[in-house]
């Protein structure tokens, strides 16, 4: 029997409850419809889409290297289409249940390769065209910031998982999961839960941060109602600024600098929230140890 997925199926099974604003507003409306068509009418696999995304990314890099304004526009368009395909592979995997561990690895590696090659092509092409060494430094900065963002995201998520695991072990009972989630809930910046599934408790981000920035919860909740995560300038927005907005506006240097600084501001905020979490974690561990001794 041929599959017959509807747009409701696509939205329910594949859209994340919180995502980058670029994805929510500029990618999902197109990617969702393409996912429905692809799932119903073709036999394309998630890995095939990942390879297609890389191929379009290489095409974008070739255009960037050509350096003329028309080529920069073509490169920006190809990069956006590459990102659309990159979003589609995960959606197809979730919709059809065909995701694999290798596919997840492939998608991650191809993303980093695309950024690396496009950064070298964009800045190298501009250097060849203008002779300005600043473009070479800009290329190094783009690659470094992309690497920093994704490594930081992995380590922050790992640190939070470790704290949850140690708290559960210290509390010693399955029923204490609620206590752990209240103290160290999933950060909206990291959340990848899909629409239609129970979302993790995120209202009480952490006691220390909430006490200092009570207004943040109202902003975050407003963004959540529109499926937008509060990390407004993440790796995705940084990439789109560098490889789409900058070339289209013929303002590669200022756009990249501003986007890089904004991303660093949000990264510092995430690290600050993690630091406050570790303080709450230390207090909770001390309390758990005191309860164990008293018992």
From TrEMBL:
UniProt keyword Membrane present: yes
Alphabetical keyword list: Membrane, Transferase, Transmembrane, Transmembrane helix
Coiled-coil residues: none
A Pfam family the protein falls into: CDP-OH_P_transf
GO CC aspect terms: membrane
Native source species: Actinoallomurus iriomotensis
Family note: Belongs to the CDP-alcohol phosphatidyltransferase class-I family.
GO biological process: phospholipid biosynthetic process
Domain of life: Bacteria
UniProt-recorded name of the protein: CDP-alcohol phosphatidyltransferase
Molecular function per GO: phosphotransferase activity, for other substituted phosphate groups
UniProt-listed PROSITE patterns: CDP_ALCOHOL_P_TRANSF
Transmembrane segments: 51-72, 134-151, 228-246, 252-275
């Amino acid at each position: 029997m041929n599959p017959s997925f509807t747009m409701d199926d696509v939205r329910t099974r594949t859209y994340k409850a919180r995502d980058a604003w670029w994805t929510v507003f500029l990618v999902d409306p197109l990617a969702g419809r393409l996912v429905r068509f692809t799932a119903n009418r073709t036999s394309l696999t998630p890995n095939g889409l990942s390879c297609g995304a890389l191929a379009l990314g290489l095409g974008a890099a070739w255009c960037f290297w050509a350096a003329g304004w028309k080529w920069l526009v073509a490169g920006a368009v190809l990069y956006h289409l590459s990102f659309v395909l990159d979003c589609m592979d995960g959606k197809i995997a979730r919709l059809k249940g065909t995701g694999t561990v290798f596919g997840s690895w492939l998608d991650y590696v191809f993303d980093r390769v695309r950024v690396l090659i496009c950064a070298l092509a964009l800045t190298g092409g501009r250097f060849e065209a203008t002779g300005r060494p600043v473009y070479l430094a800009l290329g190094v900065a783009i690659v470094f910031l992309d690497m920093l963002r994704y490594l930081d995201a992995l380590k922050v998520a790992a640190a939070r998982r470790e704290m949850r695991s140690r708290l559960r072990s210290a509390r010693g009972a399955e029923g204490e999961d609620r206590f752990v989630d209240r103290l160290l809930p999933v950060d909206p910046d990291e959340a990848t839960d899909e629409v239609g599934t129970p979302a993790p408790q995120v209202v009480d981000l952490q006691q220390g941060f909430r006490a200092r920035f009570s207004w943040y919860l109202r902003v975050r909740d407003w963004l959540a109602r529109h499926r937008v995560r509060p990390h407004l300038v993440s790796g995705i927005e940084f990439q789109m600024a560098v490889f789409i907005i900058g070339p289209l506006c013929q303002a590669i240097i200022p756009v990249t600098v501003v986007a890089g600084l904004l991303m660093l501001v949000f990264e510092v905020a995430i690290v600050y929230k993690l630091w406050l979490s570790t303080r709450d974690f230390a207090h909770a561990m001390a309390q758990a140890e005191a309860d164990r001794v008293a018992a």
